[in-house]
């Protein structure tokens, strides 16, 4: 477990295989500095190859999920470098592009870890927070939660995943574009109506309970079936139906060798619970 | 009509061009064995080149739409072969992949037949049932209908189309992923809220009536316009807007030669009904 | 401003950078003849390179948004040419395909102009009207508005964008296909439920006010952030998440050089309004 | 073996697993009528699932490989149907497109059969002959062989594979385009210079011997390794390097389970020949 | 013919349908300024819809094909704008990108005009000259010709087509990359060996004769067959074989309606020359 | 420089910016074990962000370039794991796929490092050696060099890049497929004829001299121009011409800001050498 010690994240893994990740920078309303997103990348990259982790609940401590990008760091840190007048635009650009790609890669680790991630949003979820929850699988909110695609208000287009994923997870493009251009506040009720979140709960405790229930349910399934399902959903989103089917056929040609199928079918026919070894 | 004699399907075609396909394995709650999906593939492949068919209503007999995969066959039939310990994994895998592709191809025939398919779901629709209805065009349910993406409960990822099509027909990814990971029961009311079904009706008879009405409306239109619309919707789903537009321009360069356009426009201007010959 | 004089369009640009485009062919219920769509193409192509334009409100005059294609022209104009029996089908087809591509290109200019477009629909919006509003960013309707994907009723598949964009802006494929095959009337209430429009207002005046408010909000943001956001949303819709992220990283490597970011962050930290020069 | 009885093809399979397919319509200089290409499709489709076949030598009897399309059939058969003035262009087009796709599919079966195909060309190879040999893996010619992309001389663009595959198998686009536009005669010497054929031999017997030697060499390798290599070369041609690598990784995750690897490595270390069971 | 009057181009069209385009800026060794590439774009865009043009010979006057980009203009013209220190990098970048896209579009018009273009290179062909000839169909050189991918020597990557097309027209990537990184001189002999040019002729007159012969041969074919072949080669280059075949099937479903096929086949069977009306 | 200390690689960087990487496992004929390819991945990943490196010469010590995969490790190391009969095929497969992806990623670092790599092959270059040199930019061989795509002889398809890259760097598919299926020996002369290598030199010293000359030439150019050219060649290989052009336009919108262009053009006009600061 020592491998999950972080500065900005609290991580615990239950015996049943549910990892709980809590973002915790209370002094800054969980604003994302480089340390925060670097740790998220490291944490979920490890989850991918950790058989003890079967599903994940992601949440944040304090009164809001995240205030978004750490603006103080943004003024003096890596994000400010392109505006340095003393360097050749093309040269600094070469390295700045790699910096953005690294940032993206850290958030995309949530998607590519293959273990389903249920996220709970309380209070505000701003800017990079939307990038992050868009990379999760299931989104649950509290009644007091609100959402803002805040990037235009700091003079830039969102570049860590919101513009790629939000339109593919919410089937209301008119709404997506309006909130991306205006940065206006979206209530959890509205978020539920458009499908950004699956459920809204009165309190954080209830929302956490609902998220944990889903994660526990997932953790009890065959991990072969679960990681295959997440991996194939991600692949298929980005390919034609025909290519998705062909890749899936190849993937399952391997996965059908698993003993989990026989175990599951026999249990199902006997109407008994099945137990599946870890990945 | 003799060409539509099947063991597991009842098929009839109305003079107006609406084909009614009823899945009928009452002894097994319409569970899908190899015979069932093979016949679905054959039936819809014929529809594609049968000018007498202009639209299709698909339904199932008995108290549920389908219990999903036939688990008894799954334990001893083709699906069980990869778990045979006596064969070289790569060799049996070579053929098993082709088996999955064949299975997929049969269900995809519903999509590629070019004639719109309206499906009515009553009772339960489990596992492969979701793969099937996802390949249809319009989904209608009864109040007692429920839906389960059941595959993880038999230890595998859905591989016949659900993971490819469900996220592209329902614009609520949080919901899609939750039901794919948990296999939980979804009521017809919830299915309507998220957009999996267009309408919910109190009884099977009412749902069938609604489906037939839609199918009859479609059958009365120009078949050139209808098959073009379905074909182009499918093509465009899997391509960029730019590529979809270019392909559509080429397709309609041919289709605009049809006399149906003049017939339809004249009828429209005269506010008279138009009659279009079969394809 | 003289460059925005058109026959079928009224165009004005506010000092804040909101362009108002009104389709105006009152004698024909705003039916689209070649002149109309040619002018739309010209107008939005100019918007792209006009720094004075930061966002657009698109509307139509009179009692309905548009009756769709101008059927009289369709009987004798370019659209009727393929049915000319005196010409070689392949030869006339070579030029007819280019005609369709030009038509598509004009409507796609709304999408590719990079400035967000908010459209207000009152009365009926038929046929080509759906192609047009699908290429806009945000859709607002009046209570009396109704929508019809009317093309099958003139014997053809929609070919100017509806079949490409509608399924990607509305996350309810069952509904999309039903209305594309049946050409049935959709009320503004139903359009709101499925997500075709973001909001419904009692009167045209209220809808126009709501659209203008959104457009003004957008016009007050950094134009670098706004055009980047629209451009990247369009790019990402048509690419995998991975490709969308890579392109976005490159785009923002350039855009992060803008002084707007510092201006915006400083204003944000000081909680003061920011002012951004035009593009 | 009875399954390989054809009218226009002579097929035999050696004990070592090399199938010899000889096109034989001597009365028509091996011109391709519907029967011929239908049989090619059937033959290679069977090869795909026939473990007794490990590699293929394709040749043609008589003084030339093929005169191309059977022009007599072309004047009255399926290819002539679009020019029938009595039918609606769009309706007959709907079925004619399916006819072309079937024709393409038959020739593509050579590519998709997964067993490497070495083709020997003697005398002339015209029109559809180029489509066919472009779908083969290795091309060998006799000194008297010549090649003509003949389709423009019958008033049409090649549509069975030449325009797709020739530019991807010959790295000299200037040459490819010249011969596709002019239909001029290409000698076997020129074909060797540009890379259309790997080798040129003085006589048909020598060319057949060279082809058989290659096919026998292939048949002695692990069939898992061979079909994997062909399948992955085809997949990778049509995808980015990144996608090709990812698909290959998945494919080999399955294939590395084969005992052939251990057999081959041990034999290699011991410098002994290895024997591999059929697929 | 008045529509082909240009400052930097001499254009003539023969009665047989061969257009001759000569680049002529003798005072500047045919260096490309904005006027030159703008006219190339205009000229070939018109060729696309001019039935009198069936094929094109492109050449340049004077002692070399082109010295490449006009460096004097490059120091003060549009290309120099991004280095203007007085403007916001993102704002000027927004417009500069559109400038590059316009430049690319002009050269790509050679490719997209659908009529085959045979180019003759004499003397040097530098920088943008390589972009241009890579967009042509057939390349012919004189013995004294030499080639240089010169862009790195002006501190930039080639951006008008060389890096996209050169590796797809020459099947020797080691050579392509070496000449793109080093900008070294390539003789016509070497260009022939690697396949950049199809033929090398002793004198410009002989090279022009050879080019004209090819162009005349093409002009005598069915223009339906010729434009289809070029269009489909371009489409297929940029798509998978499967997608190329499907698009080709649709295209030829239309083209097979042409009377040219019957004309050509009858002429072929009678061994008489055929005459085809213009497009 | 301490960051380039490796067990299996000798690395030095000249003041002019040419890195020399020598593979050195003399005790094993430079066979690739995990250590070797891991170090190659690390080395080239660092090159990407090391401004002191402008181009690379890659070679190997001893009498042959590489004997290919380290077969002893292959029998007991990670590659042998899928054949472990004691583990669930799907579970071990999950991790084995990640292992192959890591291996691929290490070799692909040669391609993605953005600095051109010139490789010198002496003696034999087998199996993984072909994967490696295919990821390089320019290939140079000695007369005694030979090449073998050896993977089928160890019972598997090449999976580290050969099947993806070889057909795209050599424009002779008949040859590519033959050598991939037969694993036969290819001389340097044949390799030169088909374009696998650009040049053949009598001795290793001469080949190294030629490689160094090319690398030095590259190192003297604008590093902005060079990394842009390599990056864009790689991007364009994997995209359509249209997409390659659009990405290039965006890339150069940034790169045109570099002072290198003015420096280079002024030097070019003055016919003086230019000096460019490091990236």
TrEMBL record, chains A, B, C, D, E, F:
<keyword id="KW-0443">Lipid metabolism</keyword>
<dbReference type="GO" id="GO:0006631">
    <property type="term" value="P:fatty acid metabolic process"/>
</dbReference>
<dbReference type="InterPro" id="IPR001753">
    <property type="entry name" value="Enoyl-CoA_hydra/iso"/>
</dbReference>
<comment type="pathway">
    <text>Lipid metabolism; fatty acid beta-oxidation.</text>
</comment>
<keyword id="KW-0576">Peroxisome</keyword>
<comment type="similarity">
    <text>Belongs to the enoyl-CoA hydratase/isomerase family.</text>
</comment>
<keyword id="KW-0007">Acetylation</keyword>
<dbReference type="GO" id="GO:0005739">
    <property type="term" value="C:mitochondrion"/>
</dbReference>
<dbReference type="Pfam" id="PF00378">
    <property type="entry name" value="ECH_1"/>
</dbReference>
<protein>
    <submittedName>
        <fullName>Uncharacterized protein</fullName>
    </submittedName>
</protein>
<dbReference type="InterPro" id="IPR029045">
    <property type="entry name" value="ClpP/crotonase-like_dom_sf"/>
</dbReference>
<keyword id="KW-0276">Fatty acid metabolism</keyword>
<dbReference type="InterPro" id="IPR014748">
    <property type="entry name" value="Enoyl-CoA_hydra_C"/>
</dbReference>
<dbReference type="InterPro" id="IPR045002">
    <property type="entry name" value="Ech1-like"/>
</dbReference>
<dbReference type="GO" id="GO:0051750">
    <property type="term" value="F:delta(3,5)-delta(2,4)-dienoyl-CoA isomerase activity"/>
</dbReference>
<dbReference type="GO" id="GO:0005777">
    <property type="term" value="C:peroxisome"/>
</dbReference>
<keyword id="KW-0413">Isomerase</keyword>
């Amino acid at each position: 477990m020592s491998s999950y010690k972080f500065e900005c994240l609290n991580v615990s893994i239950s015996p049943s295989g549910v990892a709980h990740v809590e973002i915790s920078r209370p002094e800054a309303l969980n604003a994302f500095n480089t340390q925060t997103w670097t740790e998220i990348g490291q944490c979920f990259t490890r989850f991918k190859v950790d058989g003890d982790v079967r599903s994940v609940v992601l949440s944040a401590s304090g009164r809001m999920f995240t205030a978004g990008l750490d603006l103080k760091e943004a003024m003096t840190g890596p994000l400010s470098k392109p505006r340095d007048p003393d360097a050749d635009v093309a040269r600094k650009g070469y390295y700045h592009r790699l910096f953005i790609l690294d940032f993206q890669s850290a958030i995309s680790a949530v998607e590519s870890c293959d273990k389903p991630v249920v996220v709970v949003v309380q209070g505000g979820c701003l800017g990079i927070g939307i990038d992050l929850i868009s990379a999760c699988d299931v989104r649950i909110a509290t009644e007091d939660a609100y959402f803002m695609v805040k990037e235009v208000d700091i003079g830039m287009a969102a570049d860590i995943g919101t513009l790629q994923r939000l339109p593919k997870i919410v089937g209301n493009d008119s709404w997506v574009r309006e909130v991306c251009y205006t940065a206006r506040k979206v209530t959890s009720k509205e978020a539920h109506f458009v499908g950004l979140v699956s459920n809204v709960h009165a309190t954080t405790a209830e929302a956490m309970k609902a998220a944990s229930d889903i994660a526990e349910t997932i953790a009890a399934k065959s991990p072969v079936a679960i990681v295959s399902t997440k991996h194939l959903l991600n692949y298929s989103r980005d390919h034609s139906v025909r290519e998705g089917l062909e890749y899936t056929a190849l993937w399952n040609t391997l996965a059908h060798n698993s003993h989990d199928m026989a175990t599951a079918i026999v249990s199902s026919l006997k109407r008994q619970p099945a137990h599946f070894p870890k990945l």
